[in-house]
Amino acid sequence: MPGQMSFDALKRAVAEGGIDTVLVCLIDMQGRLMGKRFVAQHFVDSAWEETHCCNYLLATDLEMATPDGYASTSWRAGYGDYVMKPDLDTIRPVPWLDGTALVLCDLLDHHSHDPVPHAPRQVLKTQVARAEAMGLTPVMATELEFFLFEKSLREIAASGFRDLTPISAYNEDYNIFQTTKEEAVMRPLRNHLWAAGIPVENSKGEAEAGQEELNIKYGPALLAADYHTIAKHATKEIAWAQGHAATFLPKWHKDRVGSAAHVHQSLWKDGRNAFFEKGADHGMSGLMRQYVAGQIRYAADLTVFLAPYVNSYKRFVKGTFAPTKTVWSVDNRTAGFRLCGENTPGVRIECRIAGSDINPYLALAALLAAGLRGIEEKLDLAPPTRGDIYESADVPEIPRTLREATETLRASAMLRAAMGDFVVDHYTRAAEVEQEAFDMAVTDWELARGFERA
């Protein structure tokens, strides 16, 4: 893949003056890149071995506040350090920033040098290791949906987030003329990501004004999450550079459709898709049927990782292509899980529950945990649900609020066994913090509804 760099290639680029800055980044709980900008020569001389960060970076909310209730760190414990250990296999240039390269880090305990269990990359690595112990390689891809706006983030913030005009005026789903108007953002996004070693396949208009979708080729699960994180970061930076704003908020307006991050999944064995069985119903192997059955049985347990914020649940609306039920179907976009590539070696399951605000490491880890449990329990898969699934009665629904999903996560014996109590308790607390912040807020809706009449 063009763009990816070995450590030796980075050293040569630094010596030749092509790279003068290295972004050394961890992934926080919200799926954002956090870290430091290193003088490139210092990085290749010594900092490539390790650097450090405050351990509060895995115990904050979206606002970077430091709420209490985390066992991992606190004011009482003094907010110590983590070791940021660069994964040298992740080095790549950042072509949209002059003279810049990037490396992702794993987080280690400052004292024991053991992996930090609740670090998002480590949470996913743990589930990948479970699959590998079964002789299987998880292969995944995510779709990135987002909205572009006429004005910049600074201008929109100054307006109190009220002057929200999408970059285009009408539904641009697959519309070439409409998306041509957005090429000032989308063309450099596609090409810069490709040059950075992210295998972008295409972009397209989505089913709303100003809504775009970016599609990246499938890969091993950890790499797929890395691709997603860097692409999301690049989208925001490139839109900013062009004077526009990009948002991955799942539901920015009650009358507009939401944004998703559909997750495509398969398990491979000996270089082949183990989900495919020629001549089987829909081309689905027994292994695939068990995996999908696990995801359906435990869908509610996973929902906090697929919809992590209060706003996430505003997206689950009938008739908007967002699912409301946790059933599977054959190429039916009204279901929570959609079979794609029926009867072909590319057969896979697409989870449509995940929103554009996911932390991809946590979402992919949770989906893997449920699918692997389905294999371990040899679960039977019910027949596919057909027709308009929005109207289907007596089928399980996606939790409708973060509060409901949080309680399901707290009680999940499956995820506690797969991820460990410490990890589940940590992210349960993160969901509680989000809910507590919303419960304290006074919204525009409340003011307009009750200011005079209450």
Automatic annotation (TrEMBL):
Gene3D superfamilies membership: Glutamine synthetase, N-terminal domain (3.10.20.70), Glutamine synthetase/guanido kinase, catalytic domain (3.30.590.10)
Cofactor: Mg(2+)
Boundaries of every GS catalytic domain copy: 120-454
Keyword GTP-binding belongs to the record: no
Keywords, comma-separated and alphabetical: ATP-binding, Ligase, Nitrogen fixation, Nucleotide-binding
Highest taxon in the source lineage: Bacteria
Keyword ATP-binding tagged: yes
Domain GS beta-grasp stretches: 17-115
PANTHER family cross-referenced by the UniProt entry: GAMMA-GLUTAMYLPUTRESCINE SYNTHETASE, TYPE-1 GLUTAMINE SYNTHETASE 2
Family: Belongs to the glutamine synthetase family.
Function of the protein: Catalyzes the ATP-dependent biosynthesis of glutamine from glutamate and ammonia.
Name this polypeptide is given: Glutamine synthetase
Organism field: Rhodovulum visakhapatnamense
